[in-house]
Each structure stands twice: as structure tokens, then as C-alpha cells.
């Protein structure tokens, strides 16, 4: 028989052990985007497999893909209970600029209440939290109130390029009632959250080209349309004075917020000063007219310039009229925008607005739609109850601005929703120097996952 | 007694020698803007001094400035004749993008009728042309019909930041009747030209800054004003739909073209197809409404974007909301625009138009006003006669789009006009990959300078 108390007692008595497990995991520089770290990717996969084996899984396998392998484990000894596909990733972001780190990103260091390391929050800390919860339940709580299939991939930080194919070719193996995704966070250390919406992504590289080669700006300035100027004009036209995106039809399919949803958004605690601080202290906030900041990141689509390049960018001056100019442009999408349609809208905008003095071409990168999941599924209810038990307050239901393509891929390919419950904090420095994980919530996270499975 | 025929005969018999002199000079990577090329700057100055000494100058010196040195030589043995200050520069532009060069920029290579090398046309080829003319006249023609003071600086490509001070502190040394400036070109290989107008230059680096560090575009896209977007909006607003610059007061001091000048402009041969080819085949021309292309580059001011940089510009995608964005912006100025006033106009534009969600700062680089010189001076007449003799057709009098700040500095500080006579061609790829010099005009140039001095 499952004993919640025994499972909880065990993890409370062995905090040092699970912290050491996280430290050992975070010490492996598993940077998926850098070829020179391929051996480290192998070591990280082996480490996850070792942990899974030690937990008493029925089956553990490192499964190849066209890129980095997926680590899979399953425990299916709860015949009448739901089956949960638990998702995590063992890869991390690059660490540059390295000189801004206060301690080595791969020598995990505890300072105060935080563990500093690349991947501490995104998402090795979250991986170890749910693994420790399942391990304790299985080995010291007498079992689990659910069957679990654990899938930990190695390519999330590069856009999960091989995951859709993996899901499609292992549909039977991965058959489940819903998925648990721990790759998320909460707004304040004392306020748990369940993410029920994520924005999608459409990412593009736009080139504007004029003459075949760079020109002398004295000889040709005034008679050759400068591609850098044209690029700026095209980008400037992509937003109107109200901060709305002007691509034709861009908002046509955007699901309108209901009064109930807006009321929910309004209940989410929001501290303007703190929000500015988390945003790196820009002079002031900005955004689409008619919406609150919480709505703007949670429920409204955006168009961002991620990069600009043209001509001479070194020290000093060079009087060149550049022959070409480039922008990286991405859009965060919300239900029910279709990434393919958004690409057509961008192409239509460029066709309408690019002057005949230049040519342009557009390359599309990773694309995925936004998702909204059911807030009253058995998974969501089990999660909400678990979080309220551990934190003492009910969780807020939130939509998040980021994109987790796997959530939409699991919905589309396996046909199931995800319960998105993680414990990162807004100031964890994800993808930035001095990434950290707040350890009190590492332990609360473990207990929350124990309760979550017990509640099923 | 001076013998024109002997001087001409000598250079005709020693073409290989002067070409080799140019090749050796162009092989020195004297890129003034890059600190790592400082030793090469020293080598280039030594090379010039060596050539001057071999010519039989009375005096040769490498004279320090706060930046790269000036090389000076003088021959003053023609007591009743005018004194000409001959101006050149031994520095060159950077070479990036290097992969677009068909041969190494510092391994000068003859292909067909052209010599390919960085600096071949701008202006080591022109330097060697006037030096060879003076050398041949002195050593094989028996003298010169003028006194010459030769000043070859090393900072033209970075805006001659120390030249004004050098001219001011050596006013007596540099006292002259007029200056000969070879840093220019002609429109067609068979049509010589004298430049009587040059545009000025004002060059700036603009930074727009938002948050203190780069942000995750999912978490913050929609509530933080993207500095790259703001930069594009600011740049887009700098031109109106008629191609006019919108900086407040920008055209207030622009000298209006007279009917006579417009008639002169109309007489300059202009072939649209050829002009497009020289401009690197952009889809079509562009420019300020109400003016011809010759007027646009000769007599109208412009504003160009020379470089753009923000965020992630590597391969692939990175969902960053950049904390800052940069543009290199320069303006070609015409009489009577004042570069200082133009800087104020740009600052005023930014103050009026930059949103309160960002901050900006502006750094000014080299600045100089546009100039118009006398078309009927003794120097101009000697030049016109020399060009007609060598090319068989009279030269056109032109205004040029480029900037040669030294011409206005010499006018202002030494009080003399410049005769601007050079032999570059519009398709010489100045400041761009595959710079070249058309060798038949290298030799015609030498003969033209021999005739020019003979005509004085």
C-alpha cells in the first residue's frame, strides 16, 4: 500500500542526498548546441539512466535519435491508475559571456538559499525534483498511484528538432492519459502556479538586398536605396502607434480573452517595480494598448527583433553603403494563430511594403503554435491540490509568455494535454550568466510531486 | 632647362618599374582604423619616405602627429614659379568581408587591365602616379616648372582627425599658392574630369539601450520596448516618402542650385544602364524627388546607414530580446551646411522622436564641410590643358559625391584652393571588396601630372 507519510519522511531525511544528486548532474556541461560537448551529452544521458535504474523502474533505455539521445524509463505496476508521461530535458544553454559568472557554471555552488550552476533551474533541478519524488514514492512509499513513463530529451535548448519524429515513431510506447511537464516556473517563491497556456513561436531571418556589393557612400549615397535603411523602414512598419503588429490578418485568429480570463489575469499578483527589475530595469514598460502587462505576455501575440546586422559594425567609421541587411524576427503566438499562416502574413506584408529598389528573402526556423490546456482535468486538479497542500495557498492558473514546443507536439502527436508545473523563479537567470535554483523550492517541488502522484 | 619630352619618354620606357613601385606600396596593409595594423602604418610611411628620397627632394621627413605620422617632402628650386602643395594619403580602408575578394587584398594582382588590391585606387595608385610624374620631371626632365611640397598623411580613411592641427602648426612650412589633390576620379576611362565641388561628411554612432541585459523574448516580449525595433523606427523616420532627410532644419543652409549649374550638370554624360552597373546592379535607382542622379550625388546632401548591429546575428535562432542596438549613420553634406549644426539637428531629431522606454547616446566621428573651388585659377587651367593633351578631349568640371575633408581644411587653415584631379573610376570598388585601379589610366595619370607641372 502507498504511504504518503513514508515517502515524505524519506525525502525530508535525505535532503543532502538529493542535493548532491543535483550537483553531480549540473556539473556535466551538457550544452546541446555545441558540437565539442557531444561527449558530455553522452555522460549526461548515462547519468539520467543511472538515476532511473536506481529508482526501480521496470525498464530504462537510452534511445537514439538523429541528434542527442532520449533517455526513457517506465514503471507500469498500477494497473487501474492513469498513465502519466513525465517530460524533462538534460541539455542546457551555452554559458557565454563566461566572465560575468561569479562561480564556474559547471562547478555547482551553494550561496545562501541558491544553487548556482548552468542548468540548475532550466531544468536539471526540476528533473531531479520529480525523479526524487518518484524514487521516494516507489522505494519508501510503497508504490505510486499512477503509471509513469519518463522521457528526458537532450535537445530542448536547440528547439527539439528530433522530438516530433521520436514521438511519432514511439506512439505506442508513449501512450498515456496526460503528460506532466516540469519545465516551467512560478512568479514568487511563496506562490505556486500551474501554467495552462504557452505562447507559440515563429522565427525568421529576413535579408534585404540592393547592389551586388558594398558601395562607397559618397559616390553612391543618394542614388542607391540603402538596404539597411529599407530594412529599418520595413521593421518600423511592423508595429503601429498602439504597439499592435501590423502584419495583414495577424490578429484574425487570436482567441479573444473572456471576462473570466481577464478576471483571472487580474488576480495574478503583479508588482510594477519588481516587474521592471526582473526586466533588467528598462526606463519604463511598453506594450500593446488596452492590455495589462500580465495579459501582454500571457495572452497576446508579439513580434520581436532578435538581431540586426548590416555593413560596418567595428570600431570607428567606415563610409560604406552596405549591399545587404539582415534581421532575425520572431513572433510569440497565442491560440488559435497558425504558424504557417503567420509566415504567409509576414510574406504578404513584405510583398506589399518592400520598395522596388531592393529584393528580399525570408528563411523560416522553428515553428510551433501556442497551446491552452484544460484547467479542470484530473491532472490539473491533482496538481492544484498538491501545490495548495505544500505551499499553503492555492496555485494561480497562468498563461506564460515563453514557448515549450514539446507541449504542442505531445498534444498533436500523442493526443494528450500537459500539466505544466515547475518551480523556477523569474530571477533564475535562465539562458544568462549566474543561473540559479532557489533550494527551498527544490525541496517543496519534490514534496509537491509526491503529493501530485498520490492525488491521482 | 625642363624637357617635357624627356620626362614623358622616361616614364613610357619604365612602366614596369612604376607598376612594381605601386605593387610594393599596395602590399603593405596600412589600415589606419585597426590598431593591430599600427606597425604596417609605420612601414607604409617609411616606404613613402624612401620613394621621396629617391626622387631627389631637398628635404624628406616623417613627421609625428597625435595619430599616424605625416610624410613630407619638398623641392623648392624654381624660385619664380608657383608653389604647389601636393596632397595624398598612404592609409587604406579595412578589407572585410574578406571572403568576397577574388584575390588577397594585400597581394596586388594584375587581371586584364586592372590591378586588384586594397588601396590600388584609393589612393596608393594615385600617390604613385603623381610621385612618378614629379620624379621623372626632376630626374629626367631637368626640373619642374613649380616648387612642390608633398604631404602624404596616414589618417584620411578615419576622417583625418589630426590633420587640421598639423596644418595649423606647420603653416609656414606648408605655405603655397594652391594645393593639388589627387584623391578623386573620373566618370569614364576616356573622359577626364576636374572636381570643383566635394560633399562634406558627418559620421555618427548611435546606440539605443533598454534593459540592462539581454532578455528572454518569451518572458519579456510585449512588455519591454525592444531597442532594435526602436532603432529601426528612429532610422525609418529620418527620410520622408520623397527621399528627403527629415532632421529639423537639415536643408536650411543647403545652397540652391543655379540654373547655370543645373545646365552644367545636365551636360555631364550620364548613361542610366552604365550607372546602374557601376552601382552594383541594384534593381533600380532611388533618390530625392525633383533632382537628377548627377545632382543627387553632386549637389544634394544625404543620410546613409553604414552599419546596423543588435542581438543575435549568428547562424540559426536565438530568442533574445536584445538590451541594445547600434547604427552607424553618416551624412554627406553640401555647401553651406555646417557639420556642427547637422550634429545638433540629429540630436534634436532623436530628442523629439526617441520614446521614453529607451535611452540613447550619440558619438560623433570625423566631420568636415562640403567645398566648392574656383574653376578658373591658374592651377585649374594648367590641369584642364594637361588632361586635354593626354586624353584628347577637354575635361568635364564636376562636383563629386564623396568627401575629402582636407580640401576644406586646406582652404580654411592655409587659405588656398585645391585643384582636384585624380584618375579613379566609378567601378573601382572603393571601400569594398575587389578594389582595383585601371592601369591604362594609371599611366595616363602620370603623363597628365607631368603636363600639369609643365603647364604652370
Characterise this structure.
Two copies of one chain form a homodimer. A six-stranded mixed beta sheet of chain A has the order 1-2-6-3-7-17, sandwiched between helices. Chain A has a four-stranded antiparallel beta sheet with strand order 11-13-9-14. The first copy, chain A, has a three-stranded antiparallel beta sheet with strand order 4-5-18. Chain A has 456 residues and is of the alpha+beta class. The model of chain A has no long low-confidence stretch (mean pLDDT 94). In chain A, α1 crosses α4, α5 packs parallel to α13 and α12 (378-391) crosses α14 (439-455). In chain A, a hairpin with a 2-residue loop joins β4 (109-111) and β5 (114-116). Helices cover 35% and strands 21% of the residues of chain A. At the A-B interface, β9, β10, α6, α7 and α10 of A face β9, β10, α6, α7 and α10 of B.
Helix and strand topology:
Two copies of one chain form a homodimer.
Chain A lengths: L3 H10 L1 H12 L11 H17 L4 E5 L6 E6 L7 E7 L19 E3 L2 E3 L3 H21 L6 E7 L9 H7 L8 E4 L11 E6 L1 E10 L5 E2 H4 L6 H10 L22 H9 L4 H7 L14 H6 L3 E10 L8 E2 L2 E10 L5 H15 L5 E10 L2 E2 L5 H14 L4 E5 L4 H10 L3 E3 L15 E3 H17 L1
Parallel strand pairs in A: 3-6, 3-7, 7-17, 8-16
Antiparallel strand pairs in A: 1-2, 2-6, 4-5, 5-18, 8-15, 9-13, 9-14, 10-12, 11-13
Helix pairs in contact in A: 1-4, 1-14, 2-4, 4-14, 5-13, 12-14
